[in-house]
Amino acid sequence: MPVPKGSTLDPGRTRAAIIETATPILYERGLDGVGVAELCAAMGVSKETLYRHFGSKEGLIEAVLEARSERVTQWLRAAVESAGEEPADQLGAVFDALAQWHGEPGFRGCALLNAAAQHHGAPELDMAGRHLERRLGLLAEIATRAGAADPGALARQWLVLVTGCTVVADQHPGTPGAARLAREAALTLLAAARAGA
Amino acid sequence: MPVPKGSTLDPGRTRAAIIETATPILYERGLDGVGVAELCAAMGVSKETLYRHFGSKEGLIEAVLEARSERVTQWLRAAVESAGEEPADQLGAVFDALAQWHGEPGFRGCALLNAAAQHHGAPELDMAGRHLERRLGLLAEIATRAGAADPGALARQWLVLVTGCTVVADQHPGTPGAARLAREAALTLLAAARAGA
DNA sequence: CCTAGATCGAACCGATCGGTACGATACCAG
DNA sequence: CTGGTATCGTACCGATCGGTTCGATCTAGG
User: pTM, whole model, 2 decimals?
Assistant: First the structure.
């Protein structure tokens, strides 16, 4: 059986399946750590199919990162929304979600930030920037709801904590509870901003 | 003149010169972004010489990263020591130094953390871990001198801020003053820790 | 039934990769 | 003067890279 997959049946279906399969491989091995041939073999797809869908390895990478950013952003937002109305609870929920993520077996840091560190060119850097911008938007909403005097500045401080604890959780074994520590720090900053306002 | 360089005169001299020249290239282009041949050409050294000194590209990378970690650690420590006795001033000096670094033209994030994001294997990951451990030691000294109830936890929160603001400064153009914001956050945490103690 | 398109596996491309080998040259220690 | 060593430039190695092409195979739509 030379062609076991459904062929013409999936216009965007194949594309989504490729992205889904390629995502963990590129994440675990690094963008330059795995070749196109191996990628194709792993997802049971020929090179020709891959190149018609994505044009190049870079195209695949961009699609993978875009999907990843979208997915994790929605996931974080869901965590916030299920934390009630109190801004402090919502903020805590962000770092609780991060802590859970950091504890997962295959955790290797943020895929977007790692990608930008690997290919420090325009596409990956822009994508990481947009990713952080989305994160900042979520945090700014919380800061605004909390009535901070300068919600933008507070949200950016939280962004630094979110980013930093993810990197530390990945690269510094000596700090096991990075997200938990960052959570306390974020709440302290929130309390200080409220007291100052 | 086929051999213009001093030959037997430099046992560790050549090694140091190679490291010094290779450092900015590997930093700017990424570990996988430049080949051994190009590296050798850039520093006017033959491949044979490079491989006798470092054994492999990985060996060169490790030597470069080790030297870099040592250098930046000493630089940060010097900044702290020239900031007087007051812990708050020393803490501020750390982030002032970071802000200056982030503003330099070729800034591309922390070389150690970038390397660990690229080659997520044992050597680079361990090196990044030791690098963060050195940073943590410096911060813990300050936290201890400040009389914090839990100096280790406070220092780790500062470590998250230091790491986070460096990544954000590199990858998020929407947060220009990341180090300055992190500095304010760190001082707020210090004040809160003192008030709580 | 038949055409158009999607897919497959595999062969193939030039380029580059990390790493080695070689002969020649220059220096230093004895 | 001589022998050991460090370096040079270059050629070379096998492997892998990203990317293209091709004929065979299958399926959906007309």
Answer: 0.94
